[in-house]
Amino acid sequence: MNNPAIEKLKQYLEELESVQDFDSLEAKAEHIGLINQIKSSIGQLELCEKHGINSGSLVSVLPETENPNFCYLAVHENESSNPANWEEVIFNGQKIQFSGGDLVIRK
User: Fold this and answer.
1) Does 60 share its domain with 91?
2) Burial level of 82, CB count in 10 A (0-12/13-18/19+)?
């Protein structure tokens, strides 16, 4: 089932994109800005839908550090408290290093 909020925004976007006449250059620029905001909002909602993120999801920000070379890794602990037994998680075939300020989202 399609998200009704996304569908409404898409309808609104179609209405906005059909407008051709503007009273001034400033009005046209403001209109284009609104179109861009609506497109961005649709994209954000679609991303949340795709990944099951909702208003109850836990969003955490990784702490910033003093060391610019510091990074965070996602690891699979393999039921061991010994880091030597941990394996780095591969995302779409790649190792990913996270930085301070990156988001961690728990559905």
Assistant:
1) yes
2) exposed
Q: Which residues pair with 64 in a beta bridge?
A: none
- Which domain does 37 fall in, by range? 1-51
**Of residues 2, 102, 104, the one with CA closest to residue 49:** 2
Q: Which residue has the tokens 């990913």?
A: 96
Q: What is the pLDDT of residues 38-88, one digit of tens each?
A: 999 999 999 999 999 999 999 999 999 888 888 999 999 999 999 999 999
Q: Quick one: which of 105, 3, 5 has its CA closest to 56?
A: 105
Task: Give how many domains the chain has, as a whole number.
Answer: 2
41 and 69 together in one domain: no
Joined together, the tokens standing for residue 71 give: 């990074």
pTM equals 0.75
Helix, coil or strand: residue 88: strand
pLDDT in tens, 81-102: 999 999 999 999 998 999 999 9
